[in-house]
Amino acid sequence: MIVSLDQAIEMHAKAALFRAGKSACKQTLELAERFRARGDLASFETWKSVSERIAELETKQGFVVKRRI
After folding, report:
1. With contact defined as beta carbons under 8 Å apart, do 61 and 45 qualify?
2. CA 45 to CA 48: how far, in whole Å?
3. How far apart are CA 25 and CA 51, in angstroms?
4. Which H, E and C letters describe 11-68, residue by residue?
5. Digits of tens for pLDDT over the chain (69 positions)?
6. To 10 degrees, what angle do helices 41-59 and 5-20 make?
7. Residue ranges of the domains in the chain?
C-alpha cells in the first residue's frame, strides 16, 4: 500500500491526538523544532504540517478523540 505525504500527515495527526490529547500539538511542534535544530529541514516541515493538521482537527466541529483504554 502506497501512502501519500498528505495521508501520512493525517494519520500521524490523528494518532498524536489519540495518544497525547490536548498536548499533541505542543509535543509535535517540539519534535519539529528538534529536527530543525539538527538541520533536518524536510522533517521539520513535515512535522510542522502534522502540528498544523492537529490544530485544524482540534478546532473542527464534530471531531472527537475517543480513547479506548
Report:
1. no
2. 5
3. 5
4. HHHHHHHHHHHHHHHHHHHHHHHHHHHCCCHHHHHHHHHHHHHHHHHHHCCCCCCCCC
5. 899 999 999 999 999 999 998 899 999 999 999 999 999 999 999 999 999 999 999 888 666 666 655
6. 60
7. 5-59
Q: What are phi and psi of 53, to 5 degrees?
A: -70, -35
The reported pLDDT for the residue numbered 65 is 66
Contacts 24+ apart (CB under 8 A), 24-27: 24/54, 25/51, 25/54, 25/55, 25/58
Q: Nine-digit cell at 42?
A: 524536510
Cell of 1: 500500500
Rg, Å, the chain Cα set: 12
